[in-house]
Write a structure and sequence with these properties.
transmembrane; 2 domains; five-stranded antiparallel sheet; signal; Immunoglobulin-like; Murine Class I Major Histocompatibility Complex, H2-DB, Chain A, domain 1; four-stranded antiparallel sheet; alpha+beta; single chain; Major histocompatibility complex class I-related gene protein-like
């Protein structure tokens, strides 16, 4: 056996390869193989030689280093990986750095004499991650809030809606609490009566 280990039963052969570009400008390529959860053999991106992590890997090292084509392909990959990574980063730089704060509003709909529905909308924000919840005073209405899924707009930004049913008598103590990476302070919204507002579809 090349591995000089038992080949009976089932075994796991794993590989991890890639490259890193650090903030200080340094870079590193890596190619590691593992056997049954243990480090086994890796390719040194500076010397372009195979380095064993287990005694059983020595035969594999000798076999792979005798195959000049195999080592050359790994060398080329590690040399070009960084350039490819730089290209991907330049393509996505604008998206990665894009920050758009949410704009919000609160609407309401009368469901019955004893129930009103408040709808909080936050839209035009980027990136997608956002925290939004209805509050009754300072108390989070975690279980009462119906949170619609965050959805994309045609311009690449996102929007979300939160709905809660309340007692009309308590309307003034409810507020919509929104946290987003673009905001230094949470955006807090409450319903304000607008005679021209007509809520058709919610």
């Amino acid at each position: 056996s090349v591995l000089l280990i038992s080949l009976s039963g089932s075994h796991t052969w794993q590989a991890i390869l890639g490259c890193e570009l650090r903030e200080d400008g340094s870079k590193r390529g890596f190619l590691h193989y593992g056997y049954d959860g243990m480090d086994f053999i890796s390719f040194d991106g500076e010397t372009f030689r195979w380095v064993t992590a287990q005694p059983q890997a020595q035969k594999v090292k000798e076999k792979w280093e005798d195959d000049s084509g195999w080592s050359q392909r790994n060398k080329v990959y590690l040399e070009t990986c960084i350039e490819q990574l730089k290209s991907y980063l330049s393509y996505s730089k604008e998206a990665l750095q894009r920050i758009e704060p949410p704009v919000g509003r609160v609407m309401h709909k009368t469901a019955s004499d004893k129930v009103e529905v408040l709808i909080c909308q936050a839209f035009g924000f980027y990136p997608k991650e956002i925290q939004a919840i209805w509050r009754r005073g300072k108390e989070d209405c975690k279980y009462e809030t119906l949170l619609r899924n965050v959805a994309p707009n045609s311009d690449g930004t996102y929007y979300v809606r939160l709905i809660i049913e309340i007692d009309p008598k308590e309307r003034d103590i409810f507020n919509c609490h929104i946290k987003h990476g673009s905001l230094q302070e949470p955006l807090v919204l409450a319903w304000k009566e607008n005679p021209e507002e007509k809520l058709q579809d919610w």
